[in-house]
Amino acid sequence: MMDIEQIYDRIETNIGRRADSFEAFLLRTSTLSIEVKDSRLETLKQARSMGACLRTIRNNRLGFSYSFRLNPDSMRTMVDNALQGARGTDPDPAYGFPCKNGLPQSLRIYDPSIENIPRQKKVDIVRALEHSARSFSRRVKRVRKATYSEYIMDASVMNSLGLWRNGSSTIVSLSIMAVAEERGDSQMGWESDFSHFLADLNPEKIGRTAAKKAVSSLGARRIKSLYCPAVFDRETAADLLSILSPSLSSESVLKRRSFLRGKEGTQVFSKIMTISDNGLNEKGAACFPFDGEGVKTGRTELVKEGKLLGFLYDTFYARKAKTCSTGSSSRTSMKLPPGVGSSNLSIEPGARSLEDMLREAWSGLYITELVGVHTADPVSGDFSLGVTGRRIKRGKLGFPVRGMAVSGNLFELFRGVKCVGSDHRFYGPWGSPSILLERVSLSGR
């Protein structure tokens, strides 16, 4: 197998003078997935891949192609396909690639020890995860899924303007679903955690948390409809943020698919809400020193104290808007050209503890799960979601609640945020603390 420099040299040689400029992106990945059931190894899947994708520009026309075979013939075909594809696209002077713009920041996101750890030790970690959930309470009768996953990535991008980037990252995660039963009632509790370093994960804590969620949900009641204060825990608040994410993309704005279009500089959310995107935040899953085009990543403040400051841009949409890229080029697949995307999108934490917010709510609902987040409309912000949680009585958590629904508009909901907690955490690429809403309409029985 040729090394990265040889691959790039081969691509450049094949292109020659047939393109005005070009960009090549290479990705190597290694994945491992382990599932344990009843202390026995249930599944073990491992895969490795390497591929390249190419963008070319000729007379302001963009071409794209990819290949998972990197021999000379395959790379020649990839180049020919990209150049041929460009002939059928509409010209646009905004097409272009970024120039070299200094060195990216050094990040602590790669764990070189992961590949050297024996598989058996990783299986034992999942066994410990399962055992911690089962031993939490006699009411925990089953564990549906206890898994370990790892993703190791080496990415490289170069273009004909002199830009050359290389970077590596590791992500390790543990997840578990515990089932608690009592007096004919059965409830599930799910928990997961991830890190760039295996040593940061605590399987015992993750297992206990899942079991605690399952046990504390036993006896959940259906109650009448409420119009009351609501505290969304940090995970459900992050779910809401994921709905908002597309509206903060300059691509959505240009295509008139964002409710926030034309609202820069105006108050769009509660004054206590600040939202940023930070590709350098090592606690987020999408942390990386450069984006899909090789532009250095950084922190972009999108909403400050409720006021919309701007949007996320890649090179193309930045040129369209006559501004600069925010390092927000995202590659969701090697088979597709990059587009605008968030990295570690986050509601910034406040100073209030969860206990403070429960006391301030006094009587309401603590929401711990939203069902159907994928059905929300990211353009209008309208949603109707199933709700699970706990009743808040006199500022403390009461009995568990199920079978309720919350509906409305996300943008209106974020205008009603009264408190932002200090308990911030990332769930994949979205991070949030708990938030207190002044009033929420909840449909019950």
Topology:
Layout: H1 4-15, E1 21-37, E2 40-58, E3 61-67, H2 72-86, H3 119-134, E4 140-159, E5 164-182, E6 185-195, H4 203-216, E7 226-232, H5 234-244, H6 250-254, E8 275-278, E9 299-304, E10 307-308, H7 315-320, E11 329-330, E12 339-340, E13 345-347, H8 354-361, E14 363-371, E15 382-393, E16 396-409, H9 410-415, E17 417-420, E18 425-427, E19 430-432, E20 435-443
Parallel strand pairs: 7-14, 13-19
Antiparallel strand pairs: 1-2, 1-4, 2-3, 4-5, 5-6, 7-20, 8-9, 8-13, 9-10, 11-12, 14-15, 15-16, 16-20, 17-20, 18-19
Helix pairs in contact: 1-2, 3-4
What does this structure look like?
This protein is α+β, with helices and mostly antiparallel strands and 445 residues long. It folds into 2 domains: 4-215, PmbA/TldD fold, CATH 3.30.2290; 220-445, no CATH class. It has helices spanning 4-15, 72-86, 119-134, 203-216, 234-244, 250-254, 315-320, 354-361, 410-415; strands at 21-37, 40-58, 61-67, 140-159, 164-182, 185-195, 226-232, 275-278, 299-304, 307-308, 329-330, 339-340, 345-347, 363-371, 382-393, 396-409, 417-420, 425-427, 430-432, 435-443. It has a 6-stranded antiparallel beta sheet. It is globular.
